[in-house]
Specification:
homodimer, alpha/beta, UDP-N-acetylmuramoyl-L-alanine:D-glutamate ligase, nine-stranded mixed beta sheet, four-stranded mixed beta sheet, 11 helices, 13 strands, globular, kinase (chains A, B), Ribokinase-like (chains A, B), kinase activity (chains A, B), Sugar or nucleoside kinase, ribokinase family (chains A, B), PfkB_dom (chains A, B)
């Protein structure tokens, strides 16, 4: 079933210990929709400037992403510049140029308004709310956010959260949002803010899913080489939501599988710069690594004859 | 099958955000043998001073720990004083008094020398080697170490590692030992130093087991309240080794189950100060939490009809 994403489409400049890439394709909606497109048709809502390369538009189209909600405005495309040290878990932002994103006001094409699965990428919570005003009867609303909105637009974020079913945050954001240091307490506090499910991403340590009645833990795939963590969170969400939308159900089995597919997708994404790995990725590779996760995490029942 | 441990038996003074405990029972061999005793008879090699309370000796005896290798020397017992902040992952050591431990030279009672499973707790690598000189034909030698030995007695540690089958280290120690920042590369490097298995402990993020051909990831049990992380690593190793010794096999199934039981045991231990939680712990609670780990980590096969 179709899946809608609103977020950024950007040109990123990224430095890691393994190299430098200037003005490559990036943005939360780009990573998300590319990842989700392996499972499901995606409808994208975003804005780019006049300078946005047509080749990138063509790439998204080739991924079967509906671009009728991608607006091209006068001015320059949103740009982000960041740097990672050997601690690849967190980027140091060197520069952010909002450009056309500054006046972005998401408008959904008529064909998007009945879409059942919605992902609100990491943008101003008021814009996230504007998107929700335009969708008619979503089955699942998922959202991402970041420290900037938690700190500067807390009231608006809390309003939006009341309308969100599933929140993706990293552990630092969960602590900042709730004032709870312990990750389990932080998750419980978020479950009191609106969402019935919260996914706490912990970078190389994997992710935890919390619902009122259960918890699921998924490790990150152990990789010898992480080249560029940019987009890991959004590809995680894209794999996760793609799985949920294609299953068309929201039960525990589907959510656990979605966690694993999110980790699978993120693990491929960080193997190369920008979206380079996802461009080459073949569906059978996804399923193969999904099954490797089973071997990585499953163990036998305790023998009944145990003393 | 019986299991031998050499390490410290200590009096700990611990401060956490939840309280202060002075001169409580501690030490690597104490935590390890108490945890392992849920599964298997344990033989202990350690030294205490004249001031070591007889009640603690009685406690260990009540856990079915063979104390014929516990020597009481003139002088004071080994003492450790540490403090944890809200980041409960790592202790700040405030004071270490070696006392009788300074001149400790482990001697194995004759009845210990044929013991098939050996755990070398975190002591000077030369003393670890002395223990190995005295055991006849161990089936599995496991060891723990710490930053102090990696930095100050590297050559001796590398000698001992050649005789070790399984090394338990935390991620910081793995990096320090190998010079590799990436945890997978660090584990591979350790597998080149002697051990055929390495377990990398990551505190609240769980643990990873590496062998040449496979990897297993086990999360930490998500706890709302961690009162005192002291002994978490040693109770992990105790649960792990107890499971291995009682199984009497070293195949992948047993090692994965041992990882989970190590996590189970550590998760109970940190719920209260010192060994207070392990004193009360009942075997059915262990198996119940073991099975909760299954629900925490297992997911269904990917449906064969996936698109």
């Amino acid at each position: 079933m179709s899946l809608l994403v609103v977020g950024s489409v950007a040109l990123d400049s990224v430095e890691t210990p393994f190299g430098i890439k200037e003005e490559v394709l990036g943005g939360s909606a780009t990573f998300f929709s590319t990842a989700a497109s392996f499972f499901n048709p995606v409808q994208l809502v975003a804005v780019v400037g006049e300078d946005f390369p047509e080749a990138h538009v063509e790439f998204l189209r080739s991924r079967n992403v509906d671009l009728s909600g991608l607006v091209r405005e006068k001015g320059r495309t949103f740009r982000w510049k960041g740097k990672y040290g050997w601690q690849l878990n967190e980027a140091q932002t060197l520069d952010t140029q909002l450009n056309v994103f500054q006046s972005f006001s998401p408008k959904l094409p008529e064909a998007y308004r009945n879409t059942p699965y919605v992902f609100l990428g990491n943008i101003h919570p008021q814009l996230q709310g504007q998107v929700l005003d335009q969708v008619k009867a979503p089955r699942l609303v998922a959202a991402d956010t970041m420290n900037l909105w938690i700190q500067n637009t807390r009231a608006e974020l809390l309003e939006t959260l009341k309308r969100v079913n599933l929140l993706f945050v990293n552990d630092g954001e969960a602590r900042q949002l709730t004032g709870e240091h312990n990750v389990v307490k932080a998750a419980r506090a978020i479950l009191g803010m609106g969402p019935s499910t919260v996914v706490i991403k912990r970078g190389e340590y994997g992710a935890l899913l919390f619902e009122k009645e259960h918890v699921f833990a998924c490790p990150a795939f152990p990789l010898e080489d992480v080249f560029d963590p940019t987009g890991a969170g959004d590809t995680f969400a894209g794999g996760f939501m793609g799985m949920v939308a294609t299953a068309g159900r929201l039960d525990r089995d589907v959510l656990c599988r979605a966690m694993v597919m999110g980790s699978v997708m993120a693990s491929f994404n960080v193997e190369r710069f920008s979206l380079d790995r996802l461009r080459d990725l073949q569906t059978p590779e996804l399923y193969a690594r999904f099954n490797e996760f089973k071997r990585l995490t499953h163990f036998d029942e305790f023998p009944l004859t145990a003393q």
